[in-house]
């Protein structure tokens, strides 16, 4: 899932980018309201985290209001130092689903992100099962024949996209859009490298027949 972050404080923005990526999300980070609004209106975004006091002509509340006019379903979390009841009311009335004040605890923010995504009508969270592999998008866990398997966030995202599209060829562009950030400017061989690692991992143990079935699941 792709999270858009609008935060002008570089330290906080970097913290959010790193924590969200380590949790398995793709992240588009912006430091002003204009670029955040443009991205939200032109790209597929699953959740927005917006600071209110953004530089420029468009603050976070205005970004929230404009996004909500065209996208009533996308979850929006306001993350701000403005903590008075008046500011909370204004933020929630602008269309935000949640409001968290700074300073904040990172585990709480990540828990709120998970809660918002679970409630989103766009969320699709049934456990996926192919060739003995089970993947749970809600808990970010993978198991084969009941045995838990550790994957990186990128590997998890690649495997999830493959398992959502059994029997269909998935392009490198689709992989990059799903598992990497919008500004990623690398080459498609990173996708092939990730898939090769999946095929060589404990996802595909055992006899040749089971390995072939598993490899098919891990390559689309």
Shape: elongated
Compute the separation of the termini in Å: 19 Å
What do the pLDDT scores average to? 82
Largest sheet: 5 strands, parallel
**Which series of helices and strands comes N to C?**
EHEHEHEHEHEEEEHHHH
Helix content: 40-55%
Gyration radius over CA? 19 Å
Question: Poorly predicted ranges (pLDDT <50, ≥5 residues)?
Answer: 207-220
Number of strands: 9
Record the strand order, biggest sheet.
2-1-3-4-5
Count the helices. How many? 9
Oligomer: single chain
Give an overview in words:
- This protein is α/β, with parallel strands linked by helices and about 220 residues long.
- The protein is about 45% helix and about 15% strand.
- The protein has helices spanning about 10-20, 35-40, 60-70, 85-95, 105-120, 155-165, 170-180, 190-200, 210-215; strands at about 1-5, 25-30, 45-50, 75-80, 100, 130, 135, 140-145, 145-150.
- Helix 2 (about 35-40) runs parallel beside helix 3 and helix 6 packs across helix 8.
- Mean pLDDT is about 80; it is low at about 205-220.
Notable traits:
220 residues; alpha/beta; five-stranded parallel sheet; four-stranded antiparallel sheet; 9 helices; disordered C terminus
